[in-house]
Amino acid sequence: MVTGTSKGSEIWECPNCETVSDITDNHAWTSLGVVQAKAANEDYWECPDLFPLLSSKGEETGKWVSKFSPTGWTGDKYFLGTYDEFNANFTPDTENTEFNWYDLNTAFYASKTFLDTSTAISRRVLWGWLVMWEPYKKNGDYVGNWAGVQSIPRIVVSDDDDGNALLNYPIPELEILRDESSKLVFTNARGPTPPYYQLLTPDGRMADVIMEFEAPNSATCVLHAQYDGTDRSNVLNITIPLGVTHARILIDSSVVEAFFDFGKSSQSSRREILSSKNTGIGLGECEAAPNITIYRMNPFEFDVSLVENSHNTEGVILNVFLAGAAMICVIVAYKVIINGRPGRHKQTDDDLTEDLTLKKLIS
């Protein structure tokens, strides 16, 4: 198990852990030392992660990812490098100050990954926390009733078979939410200014936007997410970086997650609004004239009848969410221990088989 410390990422093992009760016994754990030391100018490392980087074929590339979340709301950063399992030591390919970001938004924080072996090709799935420390305020007063949100799940994969670069891109299952009957296609779209070219009238909360450029984008190109109207008073602007040939923008009410060149970079953002039931999309200045495809998306509906008889529905939902999150953390920790990775021994094929004890714990 990898933990964050004031020294960097520290790795621990629990050689005799077989049950959840064993995991909660602090005396059962032994420190193997600092797996990667932090830079001298950094504060405490939170929420570290350490895992082998997989190729698009689900095979290990030989490269590992060491991810950390420095305190101070500075975003999720990572290094590519090699991991010595016997000595429990990670060596980055670059200097300790030459890191990368999962997301260019420094409010994307405290992310964790897990290995998904339920599909034909094994994959590593990433979730991050889109930080908002307090409910939305208007004129100095709280008018919102929630703070913070999880990002959409993303696949972390190597850009090639050698692990020289990392991509993170939305899991393909999200496409199930697309309303195929709503599909709109715009060829060589140019956004006049002012004000903008209206691509999608405000109707519905979610949208999936794909922008394809015939040549690398070489000029300003801005997409507008419009909330409850088409004027400029309530708009979140998404600027497409220069050099990009493909962009995908997922809009869910006030939260936007944009991915460029299939995950070579990404940028999440959030508009400070209380709520939005009708989201529109406009194209602002954009000389590159991309081809644009837009889908409405149908939100997944939870069965609230499970708690409809509660006197404190919001509290029950929150408690269910927290209990589920805690159980996920326990399961992830347990699987790390059972699989013995990271640690002091080389993982075998037998380590990758599903553990029956774990099945009993979560059944």
Write up what this structure looks like.
The chain is mostly beta strands and 363 residues long. The protein has three helices and 25 strands. The chain has helices at residues 20-23, 313-339, 356-362, and strands at residues 2-4, 8-13, 30-37, 45-54, 60-70, 77-84, 89-92, 100-101, 108-116, 123-130, 137-138, 141-142, 149-150, 154-158, 166-170, 178-186, 197-200, 206-212, 221-227, 235-239, 246-252, 255-260, 265-270, 279-286, 291-297. It has a six-stranded antiparallel beta sheet, with no helix packed on it. A hairpin with a 7-residue loop joins strand 19 and strand 20. The protein is globular. Residues 311-340 and 344-363 have low confidence and may be disordered.
Secondary structure blueprint with pairings:
Layout: E1 2-4, E2 8-13, H1 20-23, E3 30-37, E4 45-54, E5 60-70, E6 77-84, E7 89-92, E8 100-101, E9 108-116, E10 123-130, E11 137-138, E12 141-142, E13 149-150, E14 154-158, E15 166-170, E16 178-186, E17 197-200, E18 206-212, E19 221-227, E20 235-239, E21 246-252, E22 255-260, E23 265-270, E24 279-286, E25 291-297, H2 313-339, H3 356-362
Antiparallel strand pairs: 1-2, 2-3, 4-5, 5-6, 6-7, 6-8, 9-10, 10-13, 10-14, 11-12, 14-15, 16-25, 17-24, 18-21, 18-25, 19-20, 19-24, 21-22, 22-23
